[in-house]
# Entry
Amino acid sequence: MVLGAAVVAGAALVLVATHGHPRRVVHVPLSPAQPLTHMFAGVPARRARTDLFVGGANLWRLGRQPRAINGLSALLPRGQPGLVAQLVPVPGGVVALMGVESTGITYGGVGRVVFIPSAANASARVIFARATVIAVAPGRQQVWVQTAIQHLNNGQGVPASFRSRTWAVSLAGRRVSPVLHLPLGLVAATESGPLTQNLHTGQLRHWNGATGQPIPLPLPATASFVAAGSDRVVWVSYGPINQLHVTDLRTGRDIAMPLPRNWLPGAETYPPPLASFNPTGQRLVLPLDRVDAAGNTTAEDLFVADTMTRTVRMIPAKPFPLFASLPIQLAGAWDQKGLLWVLATNPGNGYYQLASWTGTGPLHSLAPGQDSPIMMSAPGPG
# Structure
């Protein structure tokens, strides 16, 4: 992924075409001080067919053209921006945690959990009104929610022993589990129940969704958590050869893959990103940072981990060098056709670029756009 020298004088919302129609661009005035720079090298995309939700400061949908989500603005508090904190595929659409407010709250923020159907004529709906973080159980139409915590410990942070009310709701908004009192730090959900991460030590715990009792995890205590999804945990072990692991929580089977030399997962964030597997569940996409001998991050790029071949390889391109003036954020997600979409965003300057990859050959890049999306997700099948 090479930073191109070409500069687009104005422009900006990318339209991805379907049914063979050519791609179009809607032009928006842009300050000359903030030119839209091509961030991806590759070949220009002539035609593309996809169905993706892209979120960050706003939430919009790519298909034949970007379109507002039916009824979405009416679901958020008056004057509340459509900020997207989490975006997760579910059967029949996606679930977004959005409109997050953080005023007066020590831990996290309060947002609305919105189900957005993939059907074009269906309306979005709020399924939970006040949540700090969400996690979707694989294969089920259940969303685990953890509630916001306000004014704890006189503003000094959340005590490690503090527990939060946690439960699952259906996509219709009905509670479908007992109310559990779990440690703060919901990071994922399995068929059996939710996963939490200790916000002080980073250690994971697995909980029975019916009883709230702990379930043993087939992971070493030193596992460095990266992400989770589809009943699998992605983590890193450090040693002479750093390895990326994908562990199946149902069977305990662990697949270890050597990481490329000097490349490691980036700084931990909370909530962590969902592990993005392709439709077959064989390949995982994730961003990695290149770290020098002094521990400084010098570049980043997206990599695909293949659990069948046990290899981790960079998407065909060169990595993004990191400059103070170019704080790139990267994300990747497969659509239901198995096409990998990649997103590069320069949040400081407010522009982004999308590209797709078939698994062979170069990236097929779209024109840069003016906005700051940082996550994307394809609607779940069903």
The chain has one domain: 7-377. The CA atoms of residues 105 and 150 lie 4 Å apart.
